[in-house]
Write a structure and sequence with these properties.
This protein has 759 residues and is an alpha/beta fold. It is built from 29 helices and 18 strands. It starts with a helix and ends with a strand. It comes from Rhagologus leucostigma.
C-alpha cells in the first residue's frame, strides 16, 4: 500500500513535459530524479500545523541541510504555468527562436535575455485524469494516517509556529532575575521609555490631535540637514542635535550598553574615535530623534552607503524598547508575587491589550535575516555568554540564500546588487520573543514581542473584509512601527501598506487571555495610535509615502521629517549629448492628471513621432495602469509597436528587444517596474519619451545613457521628451535640480530645453 501510494505521488509530481519524456525514453529526465519527491515532502517544513509543531521543532535542529535547500529548490523546479501541453511546447519553441535571434546581439544582451523572466516560465499542472480522483486520494491518505496539512498539492498550507517554548517565554509566569540588575530600571526618572509611555493624555489633548492642524518649525542639523518638526499639541520643544553622546546617558538597557559599541564598530572610522563615540554622525542624530519617541521620516536611505548603519540603529532602538518593556513587566511580576493583600493593583499597569510591541516592515527575507542577526549580536555580551536562540537552524534555512542560485556573470548597477542581495522572497512573516537571555524565533504572534514581516506577508494575515479567516488583533498594541525601504513597496504593491495602516492600533475583537488589571489605560481608552512611534525610511520623497507619514501618524510627541532639497539632479549624470525637451501639461487637480496626461500625449506628442523617420522610439511608463491604457490605444490605432512589462515572459522579452533593435517595431512601451527588477540595457534607442517622470531619479540618467549602447552613428538625431506638470515638483527637482524646477514651474513657457553631454 505504501509503495503504491509513493509511486502515485511520484507520478503526480511530474509535469506533462516530464511525462512525455518518460513515455518516449522509458525513464525520467536526469534533471528530474526521485529527489524531487523528497523535496515535495520536505518542502512542507515551513508550514506545519499546530498539532505537529512539537515534533517539527525537535527535528528542526537535526535536518539543517534539508531545510536550507529544500524550499528554494522546490521553487526553482516546480514553477510551471497552467497551460495545455501544446501551449507549453509552443512557448518552448518560441523561447528557442528567441534565443537563436538573441545570439545575433552582443554577449551582454544574450546573457540578459537568457536570464529574463526565468522564474515565470511555467507553473505546476495537475493532469486531468488525476483531478477526478483527487478527493479519493485525499480520503485514502487520511485513512492511512498521512499528514496532508503541509502538502502543496492539497492547497492547504500552515506556517510553522513554535509552541514548544511557550512557557519559557511567557511574560505572565516569569520573574526578574536578581543578577540582571534591572529590577530598578523603571525607576529612572529621565528614562525616555518611561516618560513617553507613562504620560497621561487628557481628553482635550486627544481632541486637539484629532481635529486641529499641526504646527511646524524648522531646524538645521549638521548631518541630517533641514528638519521639519511638527506637532498637534502647542507645547512641543524643537530637539537639538547632540554633538557628543555618552552611552550611559542614553538610558540603554544594561546589556546594550556594552554590546552596542562592539556591534557598531564596523561603521566607525578612525575619525569617529570608537572609544569615545559608539555612533557614526548619522546614527547619533537619528538615534537622538528615535530615543525621544518622535515619529521620523528619513528619505535619504541608500543601500550602498548608509543602509546598514541605519538598520543597526533602528534595531538598537527597537530592542532597547522591548527589553525595557519586558523588564518592567517581569519586575512587576515579582512585586505582585511579594505584595501584601489589599495592595492597589493599578500600580502594575504595564502592558497592552496584546503582547506585540514592535512591528518591522521590510521588503525581503534577507532584510529579516540581517535584523535577527543584529538582535543576536546585541544580546550576546561576549563569546562565552551566547544567548539561547530557538529554531535558529530553521530560520537560517528559510531566510538564508544559496550562493549557487545566483546566475553568474550578470552585470548590474551597484545599487541593484545591494538591494537584491540574498533571499529576495517578498512573502514572509515571523514572530520574535525576547526574554532576558533568550530569543525565540517563530513565536506565535500573540506571544511575540517583535513581528518582522513584508507588506504581502502581513496583508495575507489581516485579510480583507468579508473573509472568514482574518486576524489583526495582534496589531492593537503596537508601540513602534518601523517601515524600512518604503520606496520598494511602490514597486511591489503600495495597497498592502495602506491596508496595514488602516488596521493598526484598533481595539481587538477578542481578549486573547489578557489580564485587564495589567493593561495600560491608554490601551483601554483606544489611544494607542497617539503613543505609537513610526519610523519611516526611504530612498526618495514620494507623495504616497508622504501621505502615510502625514495622515497615519498621530504620535503626541510630534513628527520629524528630513526635507533636504536636491541641488543638481540626476540629469547631470547623463553622459551622452542629448537635447532634453520638458513639456508641461495642465490639469485642474491631481485626480484629473491621469486623463489629462493621456490626452496630452495622444494629441500633442504622439503625432510628432508617427512618421517612419522617428523610429526606434522608447516610451518609458512608470505606472502599469498607464501602460495598459497606452498598449490598448496603440492596438486600436494599429501602430507598429512592441511592449515589455514586469509580467512579460522570457520569450516575449527576447522578441521585443530584437524587433526594436532591428527597427521592425517603431515603438517600444517599457514599464518602470520591469526596469527596476531587471535593469536590462535596451539597445537601438534613438528617441526617448518619458510619459511621466521616473519614481527613482537615477533611472532618468540610466535610460538616457542607454543611447550610447547604439552603435549606429546617428547620435545627432537623438531626442528626449519629458512630460511633467506642477504636481510633479518633487520628481522634477530630483531630475533637474531645485533651481531649474522653480524656474520651470514659475515660467509661462510650456516647453523647456536642456542639453547634456556638450563639450
Amino acid at each position: 500500500m505504501g509503495k503504491r501510494r509513493a509511486g502515485r505521488e511520484l507520478l503526480r509530481s511530474l509535469s506533462k513535459k516530464q511525462k512525455k519524456h518518460l513515455r518516449e525514453f522509458g525513464e525520467e529526465h536526469p534533471f528530474y530524479d526521485k529527489l524531487l519527491l523528497l523535496l515535495l515532502l520536505d518542502s512542507c517544513f515551513p508550514f506545519q500545523s499546530e498539532d505537529s509543531d512539537k515534533s517539527s521543532a525537535e527535528s528542526d535542529s537535526e535536518t539543517e541541510v534539508e531545510q536550507v535547500s529544500g524550499y528554494h529548490k522546490l521553487l526553482a523546479t516546480l514553477k510551471t504555468s497552467p497551460e495545455s501541453e501544446s501551449e507549453e511546447e509552443e512557448d518552448e519553441s518560441e523561447s528557442e527562436e528567441a534565443e537563436e535571434s538573441e545570439a545575433e546581439m552582443d554577449s551582454e544582451g544574450s546573457q540578459e535575455a537568457g536570464e529574463a523572466e526565468g522564474g515565470e516560465e511555467d507553473k505546476n499542472d495537475v493532469p486531468e485524469e488525476e483531478e477526478d480522483t483527487a478527493e479519493q486520494i485525499l480520503r485514502q491518505e487520511q485513512a492511512d494516517g498521512t499528514d496532508t496539512s503541509c502538502d502543496p498539492r492539497h492547497g492547504v498550507t500552515e506556517e510553522f509556529t513554535d509552541v514548544k517554548h511557550e512557557s519559557e517565554f511567557s511574560l505572565e509566569t516569569n520573574f526578574m532575575e536578581e543578577e540582571s540588575g534591572d529590577c530598578n530600571a523603571d525607576k529612572r526618572d529621565r528614562n525616555p521609555f518611561k516618560q513617553h509611555m507613562d504620560k497621561e493624555l487628557e481628553d482635550k489633548e486627544i481632541e486637539k490631535m484629532s481635529t486641529l492642524p499641526k504646527t511646524s518649525s524648522q531646524s538645521q542639523w549638521p548631518k541630517l540637514g533641514q528638519l521639519l518638526f511638527s506637532s498637534a499639541l502647542e507645547k512641543h520643544k524643537t530637539l537639538k542635535a547632540d554633538k557628543e553622546v555618552d552611552v550611559k546617558q542614553l538610558h540603554l538597557h544594561k546589556p546594550l550598553e556594552s554590546t552596542w559599541p562592539k556591534v557598531n564598530k564596523q561603521f566607525l572610522s578612525s575619525v569617529d574615535k570608537p572609544a569615545d563615540s559608539p555612533f557614526t554622525p548619522l546614527q547619533r542624530e537619528l538615534f537622538c530623534i528615535m530615543n525621544s519617541y518622535r515619529d521620523l521620516f528619513y528619505p535619504e536611505r541608500n543601500a550602498l552607503t548608509n543602509g546598514e548603519e541605519i538598520r543597526h540603529v533602528y534595531c538598537l532602538h527597537a530592542l532597547n524598547h522591548v527589553l525595557k518593556a519586558n523588564a518592567q513587566v517581569l519586575s512587576n511580576n515579582t512585586k505582585r508575587r511579594d505584595r501584601k493583600p489589599g495592595t492597589d493593583t493599578d500600580d502594575y499597569r504595564d502592558q497592552g491589550l496584546t503582547r506585540p510591541k514592535v512591528l518591522m516592515i521590510v521588503p525581503f527575507r534577507e532584510c529579516a535575516l540581517r535584523i535577527v542577526h543584529t538582535f543576536i549580536s546585541l544580546l550576546e555580551v561576549n563569546d562565552k555568554k551566547k544567548i539561547d536562540v530557538s529554531n535558529k537552524k530553521r530560520f537560517k534555512g528559510e531566510f538564508g540564500s544559496d550562493p549557487e542560485e545566483k546566475p553568474p556573470n550578470l552585470k548590474r548597477p551597484e545599487d541593484y546588487e545591494a538591494v537584491f542581495a540574498g533571499n529576495i522572497d517578498d512573502h514572509f512573516r515571523i514572530g520574535v520573543a525576547i526574554l532576558q537571555k533568550s530569543m525565540r524565533l517563530y513565536a506565535p504572534f500573540y506571544s511575540s514581542d517583535i513581528i518582522i514581516a513584508s507588506p504581502l506577508g502581513i496583508r495575507t494575515v489581516i485579510g480583507a473584509e468579508g473573509e472568514k479567516k482574518r486576524d489583526f488583533d495582534f496589531l492593537s498594541s503596537i508601540e513602534i512601527l518601523i517601515i524600512d525601504q518604503a520606496d520598494i513597496y511602490l514597486m511591489q504593491n503600495w495597497e498592502h501598506v495602506l491596508h496595514l495602516m488602516k488596521h493598526i492600533n484598533l481595539l481587538p475583537l477578542d481578549s486573547h487571555g489578557v489580564d485587564f488589571s495589567r493593561v495600560r489605560m491608554l490601551n483601554l481608552n483606544n489611544w494607542s495610535r497617539y503613543y505609537r512611534q513610526t519610523l519611516l525610511f526611504s530612498v526618495l520623497q514620494d507623495p504616497q509615502i508622504n501621505s502615510v507619514f502625514n495622515k497615519h501618524c498621530f504620535n503626541y510627541a510630534g513628527q520629524v521629517a528630513v526635507r533636504n532639497l536636491p541641488l543638481t539632479g540626476s540629469i547631470s549624470h547623463v553622459v551622452v549629448q542629448l537635447p532634453h525637451v520638458f513639456r508641461r501639461l495642465e490639469a485642474e487637480s491631481v485626480t484629473s492628471m491621469i486623463d489629462a496626461r493621456f490626452q496630452f500625449f495622444i494629441d500633442k506628442v504622439l503625432p510628432e513621432y508617427r512618421d517612419a523617420i522617428m523610429s526606434h522610439t522608447l516610451i518609458y511608463i512608470p505606472s502599469y495602469f498607464d501602460y495598459v491604457r497606452l498598449r490598448n490605444y496603440f492596438k486600436k490605432e494599429d501602430l507598429n509597436f512592441t511592449h515589455i512589462c514586469e509580467y512579460t515572459k522570457k520569450a516575449a522579452v527576447c522578441r521585443a528587444r530584437r524587433f526594436f533593435l532591428k527597427g521592425e517595431k517603431q515603438f517600444l512601451l517599457f514599464t518602470e517596474r520591469f526596469h527596476f527588477y531587471k535593469r536590462y540595457t535596451i539597445k537601438g534607442i534613438r528617441n526617448l519619451i518619458f510619459y511621466e517622470l521616473p519614481t527613482y531619479s537615477h533611472f532618468y540618467s540610466e535610460i538616457c545613457n542607454m543611447l550610447k549602447a547604439t552603435d549606429s552613428g546617428v547620435d545627432a538625431t537623438w531626442t528626449c521628451t519629458v512630460l511633467y506638470s506642477k504636481y510633479d515638483a518633487q520628481k522634477l527637482a530630483a531630475v533637474v535640480g531645485i533651481d531649474r524646477t522653480a524656474q520651470m514651474l514659475q515660467s509661462k513657457k510650456n516647453v523647456h530645453l536642456f542639453v547634456t553631454g556638450e563639450n
